[in-house]
Sequence to fold (109 residues):
Amino acid sequence: MPEETDRTAVRTYVPAYQKDEWARAAEAMDMSRSEFVRTMVEEDVTPGVEPLKTRILNALEDGPLSWEAIVAEITEDVERRAENCLQELQAAGRLRHSGREGGYVLTDE
Fold:
């Protein structure tokens, strides 16, 4: 690992709920937010692998879970992010929900 002699700030923009989730996760791991984000970025050599393992292990800390419960636990964030994206796209007029057409459809805008 390179020697830590020089530091620089990096800025990114995420939805408020994501920042809150990172803050809670960092606190649970007794880390600063910066340290938590740096660890997430540097540890994820194979995208999705380590974070998924960590989430499964964290979910099992309170005891045994069924397959369905584990899947529900690890997909909750994806579902929330998908819902937020759909709401943002609808608000921007990029898509709409149509019961007649069986789901979400792109708009002409």
Remarks:
- The first strand starts at residue 95 and ends at 98.
- The mean pLDDT is 82.
- The CA atoms of residues 17 and 53 lie 22 Å apart.
- Helices lie at 16-28, 33-43, 49-59, 67-91.
